[in-house]
Design brief:
With 703 residues, this protein is an alpha/beta fold. It contains 24 helices and 27 strands. Helices cover 27% and strands 17% of the residues. Helix 2 runs antiparallel to helix 3 and helix 12 packs antiparallel against helix 13.
């Protein structure tokens, strides 16, 4: 520990090894002499830093001293200088048959760096990028360190980061733009730079320091990569205009997904059976006629002028192309026929093939037409050309290795992976596994029926459809999801919300529903618990309205709220960490954490699963797991409106397992502490009064 007390010059050799140690010293050396009234939510201070506590739940700290104390008291106590490698490689772990399956035992926390550690530190009512202390109030890699003690108490061991790559501000969404409009895969979003340390630490070093801190705390870090789409003003355009789709700039105002009148279904997947009808539609014919060949192939000499102007310092590549050619990039849109979503104006699709799809080429009136965006070309996994764009494929498959070798990430989700050619998916996975055989992959596959296919392709798990099922109590969709999950060939997320969905706390049932599902999801068979940033403090405002939006979705907050009508994915936004119940889920998961840890090998082995039946109680949900000397039970009353008498029918289990007529209550949401349980009928069936939205976890010993 004496190393961190040395000067930057004296520690240079160690800094090459540890960006975390460098961060500690930079904070020490960069600390201004003046005082601070720098506010943070109290929930950021779970290590008892000596702060000034305010009545509203905020605390005033010196941010430099606070971070130094956090490093010293929480992180560096367990620290040895770590190489820039994944946690599996650092520990020398040998992957099992399917490398990356460590995620099967994880608790995943989805985080958007820009929003999750955002706060109005100077308390002026705004999120300033340069506040009175010349510090940033939106989230940064360095400020994210403040969240690690909270994540530890939640039981989180894997952080899944929404995109961190540099994105375009062309046609941006909201105040700040969408992180999914990536303009450069191999450059980090400069908005994540922290002025507290930026003079002495590069943005890359800051990211490295965060990952090193996570690895020190035995947490893994995954990222989101976006290989199917790119920003409409991508930095790749200048070298590869043929990788994109082009239309005349004057046609941009009329550009939209064509509506196929002969398909009466509201929205359908682009199956081959529909495609002849699609191409016969006049709106589709007119849509295809909008597309042009790329500007370089149209006039190579003029293209040299564009390139020259760009390299001389004109950064607006699309403006240059518009000026010389009258062309622009065609925006992307949904792959589903007759989807009501408008074009995604900030992103476009890559040309995965250099020719038209062979499955639909005969439907084209003119086979020599320019490359076009339509339901077939979007679904490049389903509709293939004969000429793969291999130079593009090589670039896309190099993204993850870049973040592996430079930052030591542990896994990734492939955005819109379902629309990528399978051969490209294999390239991406194989290149990552060549560096780290234990690298983990999440498939953006929402349909559990495709879990087997995803597994065969090399994915470790799928997202699944929990977010659209779990809140549907009366329709028994929650039961369907939780009770059928154990049959899947790979795991899916147990989650009630994501960054694309409405918030659980904003649905019918509110906080009761949110806490109920958050706790239950820690034990759902054959799943991986998933917490969406903000869920732990009952956030009601969605981050995005992408999936399952409801009427007035933007109006979850009162008009006087500074984040009224704002979305964290696109706007300056801070989660409501001062919610009067902000510690509630944390405190419950803190109790749950050791229980899950003790029985982790039991609940993650499908062979141990036992189905449960109930003779009393309406739509009670529950399941059990057989351990060596006992049975672990998790039961829940999903209704937020009322309590119920519940009786578990153990007759089928007792036919094969001899159980005692006593047990231990490990957790009861409406009780304190643990206790012995003796509530059994004469047949040995346990019975309880369960409060509204209550979860009980107990064991019964084997005789």
């Amino acid at each position: 520990m004496c190393i961190i007390r040395l000067t930057i010059e004296e520690c240079e050799v160690f800094f090459k090894m540890s960006n975390l140690l460098k961060l500690r010293q930079v904070l020490e050396n960069s600390k201004p002499n003046h005082g601070f009234n720098y506010a943070i939510p109290g929930i950021f201070n779970l290590f008892n830093y000596d702060s000034i506590k305010l009545k509203n739940g905020e605390e005033l700290v010196n941010p430099f001293d606070f971070l130094i104390s956090l490093l010293d008291e929480v992180i560096l106590k367990k620290h040895v200088p770590l190489e820039t490698k994944s946690l599996s490689l650092i520990k020398g772990l040998k992957p099992n048959k399917n490398g990356g399956d460590w995620i099967n035992k994880s608790v995943v926390y989805s985080m958007m760096i820009r929003a999750s550690s955002s706060w109005d530190h100077d308390r002026n009512g705004y999120l300033d990028e340069d506040n009175i202390y010349h510090l940033k109030e939106t989230g940064t890699f360095i400020k994210t360190l403040m969240l690690l003690p909270l994540l530890q108490e939640l039981g989180v061991d894997t952080i899944y980061l929404l995109p961190i790559s540099k994105f375009s501000l062309k046609n941006k969404k909201g105040e700040l733009g969408s992180p999914y409009g990536v303009s450069n895969f191999f450059s980090i979003d400069p908005g994540l730079d922290d002025p507290m340390v930026s003079e002495h630490m590069s943005l890359e070093e800051q990211f490295n320091a965060l990952i090193e801190a996570c690895h020190t705390l035995n947490m893994r870090v995954m990222i989101d990569i976006i290989p199917r789409t790119n920003a409409t003003e991508s930095e790749l355009i200048i070298d590869h205009p043929d990788w994109f789709y082009w239309i005349k700039t004057k046609d941009l105002d009329i550009y939209k997904p064509p509506y196929v009148t002969a398909i009466k279904d509201k929205t359908v997947a682009p199956d081959l059976k529909y495609m002849e009808t699609v191409f016969q539609d006049e709106s589709v014919k007119n849509h295809i006629k909008l597309f042009e060949f790329d500007p370089k192939s149209q006039d190579p000499l003029k293209w040299k002028k564009v390139v020259s102007a760009y390299k001389k310092g004109n950064p607006n590549i699309l403006d240059l192309i518009d000026k010389h050619y009258g062309l622009t990039i065609a925006p992307a849109f949904s792959d589903h026929i007759n989807d009501i979503q408008p074009p995604w104006t900030d992103v476009t699709f890559f040309r995965m093939y250099l020719d038209h799809p062979q499955e639909t080429i005969n439907f084209l009136e003119n086979k020599d037409t320019a490359p076009y965006i339509l339901f077939d070309t979007i679904k490049s996994n389903q509709y293939h050309g004969k000429k793969p764009n291999m130079e593009l494929w090589d670039t896309l498959s190099d993204i993850i290795p870049y973040y592996q070798t430079n930052f030591g990430i542990d896994g990734a989700r492939i955005d819109m992976g379902h629309a990528l050619p399978e051969k490209l998916i294999k390239m991406i996975i194989d290149k990552a596994h060549a560096i780290d055989p234990d690298f983990s992959f999440i498939a953006e596959e929402l349909n559990p029926k495709n879990a087997g296919k995803a597994r065969k392709m090399g994915y470790n798990m799928i997202i699944g459809n929990g977010f659209s099922m779990e809140y549907e109590i009366d329709k028994l969709k929650m039961h369907e999801f939780m009770l059928n999950a154990h049959n899947l060939p790979c795991k899916q997320f147990a989650c009630g919300e994501t960054h694309d969905t409405p918030r659980l706390a904003a649905r019918d049932g509110g906080m009761v529903l949110s806490k109920f599902l958050t706790v239950m999801n820690m034990f759902v068979p054959n799943t991986v618990p998933f917490i969406n940033s903000g869920q732990e403090v009952y956030e009601t405002q969605p981050m995005n309205t992408g999936i399952g939006p409801r009427e007035n979705e933007l109006y979850m907050l009162p008009e006087h709220d500074p984040y009224y009508m704002k979305l964290a994915l696109f706007d300056k936004f801070a989660f409501h960490y001062l919610n009067h119940m902000s510690y509630d889920i944390k405190d419950n998961l803190k109790i749950i954490k050791p229980i899950r840890k003790k029985y982790l090998n039991v609940i993650t082995n499908k062979k141990n699963y036992l189905s449960l039946h109930f003779t009393e109680g309406h739509n009670i949900i529950g399941f059990a797991y057989e351990a060596k000397n006992e049975i672990l039970f998790i039961i829940g009353n999903p209704y937020y409106q009322y309590s119920q008498n519940v009786k578990v029918d153990l007759s089928k289990i007792r036919k094969t397992i001899d159980l005692e007529f006593k047990g231990n209550m490990l957790y009861a949401m409406h009780e304190k502490g643990t206790r012995e349980i003796h509530e059994f009928d004469y047949q040995g069936n346990p019975y309880f009064l369960m409060g509204n939205g209550e979860v009980k976890i107990f064991t019964i010993k084997k005789n």
